[in-house]
Amino acid sequence: MYRFSLYREQYRQNLRLALPIVLTQVGQILTQVADNLMVGRYGGDDPTPLAATSFGGSVFFILFIAGVGIALGLTPLIGELYAQGDRCKSSQYLQNGLMFYTLLGFLVCGLQLAVIPLMYHMGQPVEVVDMAIPYYKLLAYSMPFIMLFFTFKQFLEGVGNTRVEMVVVILCNLMNVGLNWIFIYGHLGFEELGATGAGLGTLGSRIAMPIMIIGYFYKKQKYRAYLQGFSPRNYSVKTIRTLLRMGLPISLQMFLEASAFVGTSIMMGWLSKTAISANQIAMTLGNCAFMIVMSIGAATTIRVSHCYGARNIGELSLAAKASYHLVLAWNAFAALVFITMRNIIPTFFSTNPEVIAIASQLLVFAALYQLSDGIQNVSVGILRGIQDVKIIMPIAFLSYIVFNLPVGYLFGFTLGMGPTGLYLGFAVGLSSAAVLLIR
Length: 439
Fold this sequence. Notes:
Elements: H1 4-43, H2 48-72, H3 74-84, H4 87-114, H5 126-141, H6 143-158, H7 163-185, H8 195-219, H9 221-228, H10 237-269, H11 273-310, H12 313-340, H13 353-368, H14 370-385, H15 392-414, H16 419-437
Helix pairs in contact: 1-2, 1-7, 1-8, 1-11, 1-12, 2-4, 2-5, 2-6, 2-10, 2-11, 3-4, 3-6, 3-11, 4-6, 5-8, 6-8, 7-8, 8-9, 10-11, 10-15, 10-16, 11-12, 11-13, 11-14, 12-13, 12-14, 13-16, 14-16, 15-16
């Protein structure tokens, strides 16, 4: 039987870690929200600029999330060592992570630039692709800076510090909005660049992120001590393999899940420009809700990794159950907001009546998969915390590639349901993942 008193302290500790991550994750997604809002307003009744940032952002996201996913493997490794008080080995992981993840950022950037010719073969309107490519290129150039930032971010999460990343992301998002205002609309004597200006603003803010967090490391003695332990002798193929062993399954799981969302966005382009724009509005709102879920999942990984390092299984079980309670409460609230505000929220993004009408329908269908999304994310967070990540990838492949995309295509095209049919695929895929990951 459920007793609030049993979980009160678990809720407090989980939320203490999760709330700064919430603001960090919401801050990261607000970069895309700011781009979409400001570009959407810039375009007015013309859906092309918003469709361009939607398409460019979707193609960028699939490799972005794969790179970031590998970096997430650092957190449970550091969390276990932190609980055991092993600073020396933590420093070695940080040193190897900095080299490996930054080089990975350059590799991902190169891959993203290499796929540009393929963007004309994804069934999107040519004018949308033409406008999307300059925006997409600027996002790709930001990858090395993102990976450098995430190295320090995931290390800090491993030692239980989630506030610094929050401050850095919030400050850089304010910078992004200011740069967007300058470059999208051509203020302060700069040329009016539209969608390309949004990409330039995002690039500038992402360059600032690692600069700020590295400055914090050097300022604080307890973290500077980790950097002082750096030595060429610490570079190790074995350590890199450990980072890959943890990070690669996480990356593949996130890549496959992202593939379902990006694949659906591409299929929206087979319908119309208005469908692309409406989907971007619904996706933006869904991503905002998901950032809360992801934050609770990240906090779960931290709590579970600390309990796992201390070999406190009883505390681990309570922390995990408390996360399920929190995420179910949040997703029920998010679903209610999507349904009740479905006719109001889209008007913030566009003045096109058709875009608003389609987006309002999609928000209802987005509400359908909220609870499943929360459950599967916390389950993944628990498995990361105990470093049992191998099972995640095959479940993700089955849920998102075998179920989600084909079911979405069946309802969206074969049965003629259009955009709402594509969203039914999400409900099937995420529900499958939620059921299979609880074991």
